[in-house]
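Hey team,

Filing this mostly as a record. A colleague (T.K.) asked me to run one chain through the structure pipeline before their review meeting, and I want the input and output archived in the tracker in case anyone asks later how it was produced. No errors, nothing strange. Just documentation.

Input sequence:
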Amino acid sequence: MFGLKPKTLHYWYKENLSGYKQDVEMGLWGEKKIQVVDKETGEVVKERPVPIAKPENFGTHMTIDEKQIGKKMYSIMTNAQTGKIALLAQTMKPEELKQAMEDYLSEKLSDVRSVSCDMSPSYKKFAKDVFPNTQLVVDKFHVIKHLMDALQQVRKQIKTQCLNNDKTLAKQTTDNPKSDKAWSDIELLERSRYIVCKMQPDWEEDEKEMMEQLFSSYPVFQTAYQLTQQLRLWYNGRNVGKNLRSLEMELYNWCDSANQSKIPAFRGIRKMIEKHQDDILNYFKEGQTNAKAENMNGKIQRFFANNYGIKDRDFFLFRVAGYFS
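Output structure:
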């Protein structure tokens, strides 16, 4: 552009146009930190930056998630209603996040009524310590992701057994690609990878034929798919506001079915659900999810890609604060 080198434009923007240098000199940027203290000596051994801590971005419904920026892991608290970042700190430890909240955002803690997060023990502990009177909601999409992973695990195990035992059908050459003998079992299992992610009423005719052949050969796969569909239907947004006792009984019945199936992957899902049951059921009170947090992660990732990486992490975070908080 105008014969200028990209490095020259970046230097001018950073040093003169962005306001970064002026904010650093005036103490408006880079001053907020978490102090890690040695418990025995009381000496500050490390400081972790808190690039964003804005009380005005706090609301009644908040979300928290982690994000890798460069080689460092950050925790991001986002307002679930406005989508703006309220807290960005270079730590995932609950005690350090609690310190950041108390140092910079203490006046807004009482405003928060609901916090959505994944099933991370660190974030759950942080939320319960800092917001003791707040409703904690385990994110719906994280539960569904674990469920779909369990279904795919069953599919992969069956495929591995086919390969090891050499029990596949020989592929037949035919002019009709929709014939139930057009593919071997291994091919069907591979093609079903994305089909099983769809609800059964959404299957097309050729997909129905493929899945009928698979289910007749491998009933355990059909059981796994049915369990997956049952929980996804239970988790439907149309159930938000429904009687919690009724939903709890439906969840108990699903857990019993998962246990009776004797499928290890789904027994693992049952244990996970039983461990987080109360926080999972909280979703149906208001339908809150971690969608805003995941959306923010995506925005930062696209911002990262558009800038072809991070040359200067501190300046990158300064721009993130300007755009997203």
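Quick notes for T.K.: DSSP finds 14 helices and eight strands in the chain. The two ends are 30 Å apart (CA to CA).
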